[in-house]
Amino acid sequence: MGKNIKTMPLGKIAGPLTSGYRDIFHGGPENVDYYQKTVQDTLEVITHFLQTRQTPLGDTSVHSNKNKIGLIDINSKETISVKECLTELCDIYINDATAFHHSSYVAHLNCPILIPTLAAEMIISSINSSMDTWDQSIGATAIELRLIEWMGKKLQYPEGFDGVFTSGGTQSNLMGLLLARDSYIKKNYNVIPDQHGLPAEAKKFKIFCSEMSHFSLSKGASILGLGKDAIISVPVDKDYRMDISKLKDLLYKEQENGNLPITLIGTAGTTDFGSVDPLHEISRIAQENGMWFHVDAAYGGGLLLSKKHCNKLSGIEKADSCTIDLHKTFFQPISASMFLMRDHSNVSFIQYHADYLNPKEQEACGVPNLVKKSLQTTRRFDALKFWFTLRTVGEEKLGSYIDEIIYLAKGTHYLLDEHQDFEVLNTPEISALVFRYAPEGLSKNKLTELNQKIKQAVFDSGKAMVAGTKVNNEFYLKFTLLNPMTTLVEMRNVIHLIQKIGEEQSKNLI
Predict the structure, then answer these.
(1) Could you give all domains of the chain from N- to C-terminal order, each with its CATH number?
(2) What pTM value is reported for the model?
(3) DSSP strand pairing (474-480 vs 432-437)
């Protein structure tokens, strides 16, 4: 075989890379001009989107075009230039993409992003480090470890905590449930879950969380083999926070029925109301009952940086594990989330060793291969975005942005409250408001129908975008305010738009 290779013409070996392929790969010095031109053309398209978009939505009619997927050409043998491709992409996606940075986008938990993070995104994609092992990402691993240390101290965790960056709250919450399940099994059964599977008693495991908690908890229980029935939803009080007396009643009931409470979850910023559960009381009950205490602070984690409002998270320092989404109240591009655990030894429930990747010998020598702490193997260097933010913006200014959106939410609550035709369900604890247009003379069913029509009509107008949710099977509108640049004048205009549409739509329902 060696002889054949030796006598093979060199051109045959190098052929493919000398016939027009080499020039499109990123990295070679001969490709710098092509790289710069591609980046510049792309920047022009993005700049045009940012400068010309006057509303949060472009042509809203395209959203009803269910055949759009059939219009996307990927099968043609004829290739086009990057500039032509960008032009095509504008028609397919960019021209009607939702502009989360627009001040009238007040729908879901999508934040405007900080400009320095875009520099980080370019570096992340261009250098393309993978965060699984030290040898693939030496400086990147160091930055992620430093940021985990920084966040753990913000949480006021004692020495010995740990954590890792994740794709989002769903993955972080799954990790919290995984550690909770396996920690309980280790303490109570002679079973190693990742080796032997679950003990027979696992069908009795119960996870307690607010009825307003995120759906990812039910999803996680299902993935982990506990089933959605393992979730016990605890009713909330008038402020949509977990009702502690109801929690105690449900705990007693499940224990009396022979079930095994293993996890208690506090939500710091529910998706609909932004409410923060009474974390101190929840942590005490978890400790008394030998339960793992997890806090889902995907939404409310940004409160850690607010001098005015950080006290709302009091008790989070007691959590065994915690979820924090940086792509919500830390103004980072998707995706950027963190999972923190109070005790580093719980990494053992996640870690695996592969001889080609992170052999045990390396760990014994102290090599920090982050793959052992993650459910993912290949993983982007998302920590760079947040490092860039802290270095160029600073935590004090980040905290002031949190103060701004809370102030905006309180002001918007006042604007809604001064109109007799609006019914507001909550006083905002962070920046979410649930309300509906409710003129006199309409039944509950008619009010649901009216507000569904309002939401769609606001969307179709392209002038604003609001969200909707159901409370007690009745439909309500929802503002989620995450843009520090949005003003009360702009919110007054959105409210006026809703009122005007509501007046028109209600004529057909009375």
Answers:
(1) 130-392 (3.40.640.10), 396-506 (3.90.1150.170)
(2) 0.92
(3) antiparallel
